[in-house]
Structure formats: C-alpha cells, structure tokens
Design goal:
This protein is mostly beta strands. It contains two helices and 50 strands.
Length: 662
C-alpha cells in the first residue's frame, strides 16, 4: 500500500528575547519531569493543576491528589477545578464506563443516548471554562461514533451529527458551546477527517471551507472563548480566528514529517508537537517568538534548562493553561507508560516588545546577484520610539550573492536597551528547487509543443534533468500534451505540470496545470493521459523551464514539495515566442479578414471551427461563441477601438491572432 507524507521546512528564529527575560530575578522558568507509568499530564489550568489518568497533580506543591472513588479515570480540568472523566455504568450486574463530570465537588454521570446498548462507547474531550458544557465522542452501539454536547445546566445530552457526517468527534468546547473537532465525510471503509467547529443543532462548519487535499487525519484540537482555534490540516499546524475568518497555516520544523497544534491559550500561545516516524517533540507558536512554530526545547535551552528525557526530547505538548503560563504533556512512548512533564513559564514566555520578523527568502537567478526586498515591523506599546537596527547582512533592496546570507536586526529602545532580535536568511540559487521522492515510479513519455521524450520505466532517479530537450510555444496558444508513466501496480497516479511563465525562478500556483490521471500502467504499455498546456498571454518571451510531476493519488501540491512519496519529476525547456500575428497565419488553415475591422470579422478554416474567443490585451475574455461550421462572422461592433486577441479552435488546431478594432 502506498502512503503519502508531507515535508515542509522552517527557519530558526533567534531567542535573544527569551534569554533577556530570564535575568529577571523575581521569576524563573521551571521544567519538571514526573517519573513512572500513569504520570502523563493530559490537561492543565491556570493554577498549575494538571490531570493524570488517576489523579490531579499540583505543580506548585509538587503533589498528587488521588482520583475520587466515584470515578474510574480522569481526562480534563478547567480553571474552576471542575473535572471530567469516566464513571462506572452498571447494567445487569456488569460494569461498563460512561462519561461524567465533577462540579462543586460532586460527580455526575452523563450517561448515554436513549437508544444505547452495552456496546456503546465514549471518549472524553473537554469541559468549558464556565463548566456549562462537556464534549467528546459517543456511540450508541459499536460503530456509530459522533460528537456530543452535554448541557450541564439542563442535563441535556445532544448528539452532534448532520446528514453528511458519517463520524465526528468533539475535542474542545468553549463557554458559548462551540465545539472544536472533526467530521468524516467518507462512508464505512474510507476516512477523511475534516477539521471543523460545531454548535448545538448539529450545525457543522469546515475549517476552512475547502476539504483537505493531502492528509486524511485532520482536526480542530482546541477553541478559546475568543473563538481562536488551532489544529492540523494536511499535515501542518494551523490557527483559525473565527471573529475575522482568518485561516493561517504554518510550516513543519526541519527534520520532521508533520506537525499539529493541540492547545491554545487565551492570549494566543499555541502548543503541540512535530513528528517524524514515532518520535515527537513539543512546539510552541506566538508572533513574539517568530513567524513559525519553534521547539519548546530551544526556549528551555536558551534559559539553561536541560531536558532529562531518555531521548532529549519533550515528546507531546498536549495542553497549555488559558493564561499561557503552564504547559503539560508526556515524553515519547505509550501514553500509559511514558513519563509526564510540565513547564511553568511564569509570565516569561511572551514579551510585549518584539519584531515581526521576515520569513526566510529563497530566490533563483541565472544572471548573478539579485535584489531581495523584505519588510520588518515591531510591536512595542511601552516603547513607541524604539527602532529596528540592521546588525548584519544587506539592507532590503540590496543585491544578494549566490548562496545563503543571514540577515539580523535588533529592536532597540531610545535609551539603547536591546528589546528583541530577529534573524532570517536570503538564499540565492542558480537552479530551480529539486524535490525528493522516496519511491521512484518513472515518467516514460512527455510529448508537448515539439518535445517528444521517451525515458526508462525502471529509472531510479527521482529527478531527471531534460532541459537540453526543448519545445517552442506562442503566448496565448494552447498545445496538446501527452504523458505516460509507471504507476507501480494497480494505482492511480496524477500528472501535474508547472511552467515558469514569468521567468522569476519560482513555480507559483498560477503557473500550475493539473493534466489528469494514469491508472495501472507499466509505463510501456501505451496507456496515456492527454491534456492541454495553455500558454498565458502575458508569458514572457524567451527560454523558461517546464516541470512535469507524476505523483500517487493526489496532484502535486507544489513544484518543490509534491506531497507524495511516489512518482518522479522531470524538467524540460520551453522557448516562448510572442503572440501569433497576421504574418504567422500565412501557412495556417485559419483565414480572417478584414484587419483592422470595424464591425464584422470573417473567419474561415478548412475544418470545422469549434469556438472563437476574443480577449482584450489584459487577457480578459470579452466574447465567446460556439461555431460548428467552417466559416463564421463575429460581430465586434460593440467593442471599443483598440487591440484584441482572437483564439480560434478546431478539432486539431488552436490559433491565436491579433486584430485591430477601428
């Protein structure tokens, strides 16, 4: 079976700010490891009270209060000290477990839906800070798990599931009863968990509206009372602000395959973990720490604190207190046997003065050093006269040489006090990005615009450079594109092509074309996919690169990181010529007159003309007409005077020509 993983890279942000803060004598960051099975800390509140499976741990006193006799296990806590967990459910003398909560010192069972059998199950999510709502996942029998919302004040148990939801789960709930979790759109046998927030009445909203494209397991992990949500989507962590409808995805720390945010504080500090194989490490994000998540271990190290786990990693950060001071989790390993840990940042994690740093810049230049523009800003209400000072590296707009250049800036108060530091890199390459795929399944035929290249079906090269093979295209014209490839068995592979039409050294999203799929092909059995390559009217003339990518199951998400472990990447050269003019039609089967034209443009062809489309010189479609005969008259009398492009298409030919409307 094939599996796709996503790898993304982030930069390292300077931690001078944290180091500066740690000198404050009245406060100190404290990391504490708990030894032994059952010490994983599942949740934590503003007082440093954290949840073990069988007790409540107090960070301040370093003691554990054993679980109450009424409960079987614990799973969550809020700032009031209200608890959620599992209680006994006795049916015909047999003991099962059910959801329950402790409020005002009293444990209350939640129970199950009326139609529940003894095969019913429950997984607890969270209790709201005001103690009015509890959420999680519940089934009535063995296999109908859905999110639930329990209204504490009315004792109403509500199943959260709309007609399109096959499965769902609630992980977090705020004081307004808004649930963060996921719903599954796939019927039994398939999985596509969509990150979502849900409300009473089974009103479900995807986060964002579009379905995930790369990963099957996605979720909203937490939601604050300010309706700030965090989770993971397509293998990367995200932050969603419901108030402003702003969705922000982040990159995965270098050396890891994926990452997620698991919890977020009221002041916007998100924590979670990044993962490679079975190994995790805890991450944290806030704008004052940089543009991307960083390892919590980096902050501890900057403050002289050593992580004493067996592998030197924190593992999973599962919860942050609403005030952002306490973080809890467990080390790598099975949650039931792994050692737990907690950190008290003691108001030292964030600064009110910080630089909003520039993300790393990567440029491509084939003609020597190139100018790079970057922008910096800062937040510092108590020092509005602070200034950003360039410490090292060229200024914005300067020429940057080949290779990687580090740029460092300080935020300095009017009296010269250093407030914050940020660093980023500018890398200039004389080649396009070269993606990697672990399992090579070859592209065996590329045929487009004069390129006709056959390559080996058993190639072991993930990337092949065929830029010595070139084709010629005209701006504004369309070309048939034919591809073959080895799918490695009865699998579906997708062909995606990128062309650097603006010749800026970057394959951008608007330079991407999804061709289609190939299924169950050896690459030499003649199975083909045919699509078209449309050259934009604004494409720059000259030589540029065409990239062909074949990936398993889903189209390539980018030209640098295809998002698949299976397939191949090939580069070719395209010579872009100007838009076809009158002289280009000397040997064409299409004929047109008059030019300039006042009202009626006559177009004829030796074959049936399918369509005629008229564009202005900005590339905007002005008129489109289906023809169905070998001759046509196009009424242009309503168009203002000026230059236009006309694209005429037959079964076998597409031609674009320029006209003058008088």
């Amino acid at each position: 079976m094939k599996w796709n993983v996503t790898l993304k890279i982030i930069k390292f942000f300077a931690l001078s700010l944290i180091m500066l803060q740690c000198v404050i004598a009245s406060a100190q960051i404290e990391y504490r490891k708990l030894d032994g099975s059952g010490t994983a800390l599942l949740d934590i509140n503003n007082s440093g009270q954290a949840i073990k499976k069988y007790g409540v741990y107090d960070f301040i006193t370093n003691t554990t209060e054993p679980i109450d006799a009424e409960a079987l296990q614990l799973s969550g806590i809020n700032n009031n000290g209200d608890l959620i967990g599992y209680m006994p459910w006795i049916v015909d003398g047999e003991t099962y477990q059910q959801a329950g909560f402790k409020k005002n010192g009293v444990w209350t069972p939640i129970g199950y839906l009326p139609e529940a059998t003894t095969e019913a199950s429950v997984a607890m999510g969270q209790i709201s800070e005001n103690g009015n709502y509890v959420t999680g996942q519940m089934s009535s029998s063995c296999c109908d798990q859905q999110a639930f919302l329990y209204h504490v004040t009315t004792s109403e148990l509500e199943r959260i599931a709309d007609a399109e939801t096959h499965f769902s789960a609630g992980y977090s709930v705020n004081d307004s009863g808004i649930i963060g979790g996921w719903y599954d759109t796939e019927p039994t046998g398939g999985t596509l968990r969509v990150p979502a927030y849900m409300t009473t009445g089974s009103v479900t909203h995807s986060v964002p509206d579009e379905l995930p494209q790369v990963q099957n397991i996605n979720q909203v992990s937490a939601v604050t009372n300010g309706n700030l949500m965090v989770g993971n989507r397509d293998g990367v962590p995200f932050l969603y602000d419901l108030a402003t409808d702003t969705f922000t995805s982040f990159e995965v720390p270098e050396g890891y395959d994926n990452a997620t945010f698991t919890s977020v504080s009221d002041n916007g500090v998100a924590v979670g973990y990044c993962q490679a194989g079975f190994s995790r490490d805890a991450i944290v994000y806030h704008p004052s720490l940089g543009l991307q998540p960083i390892l919590i271990a980096e902050i501890l190290s900057a403050n002289g604190i050593e992580i004493t786990s067996f592998d030197g990693k924190l593992g999973t950060a599962i919860a942050i207190s609403p005030n952002g001071n306490f973080v809890s989790g467990w080390e790598n390993g099975n949650i039931n046997s792994a050692d737990g840990w907690a950190i008290n940042f003691d108001d030292l994690l964030l600064s009110s003065c910080y630089i909003v740093c520039q993300q790393d810049i990567v440029l491509v230049s084939f003609n020597g050093p190139i100018a790079a523009n970057y922008s910096l800003d800062f937040n510092c209400s108590e020092n509005p006269d602070a200034t950003i000072v360039l410490v090292s590296g060229p200024a914005s707009g300067s020429l940057f040489p080949y290779g990687t250049t580090e740029v460092v800036h300080n935020l300095v108060a009017a009296d010269g006090t250093l407030l914050s530091t940020c660093s980023f890199t500018v890398t200039v390459n004389d080649y396009y990005c070269i993606p990697t795929l672990e399992n090579v399944e070859a592209i065996t035929l590329v045929k487009v615009a004069g390129i006709d290249n056959t390559s080996a079906a058993d190639s072991t090269e993930a990337y092949e450079d065929f830029t010595t093979i070139s084709g010629t295209v005209n701006a504004g014209s369309n070309y048939e594109a034919i591809f073959e490839g080895n799918t490695g068995g009865d699998y579906i592979d997708v062909i995606t092509i990128f062309a650097d039409w603006n010749q800026d050294g970057v394959f951008s999203d608007d330079e991407r074309t999804e061709i289609g799929t190939i299924t169950n092909s050896t690459g030499s059995d003649g199975i083909q996919i045919t699509g078209s390559l449309m050259v934009p009217l604004e494409a720059l003339t000259g030589s540029t690169t065409l990239r062909v990518i074949k990936t398993y199951d889903l189209p390539a998400v980018s030209a640098c990181d295809p998002g698949s472990d299976y397939g191949q990447v090939e580069d070719y050269t395209l010579n872009v010529q100007p838009v076809l003019g009158v002289d280009d039609f000397t040997n064409s089967s299409f004929k047109f007159y008059p030019n300039p034209v006042k009202d009626i443009l006559n177009i004829s062809n030796s074959a049936i003309i399918k369509t005629i489309i008229v564009y202005n010189m900005l590339g905007q479609e002005i008129l489109s007409q289906s023809i169905g005969s070998s001759a046509a008259q196009i009424d242009l009398s309503a168009l203002p005077s000026g230059n236009y492009l006309v694209k005429a298409s037959s079964e076998t030919t597409v031609q674009t020509f320029k006209i003058i409307k008088s």
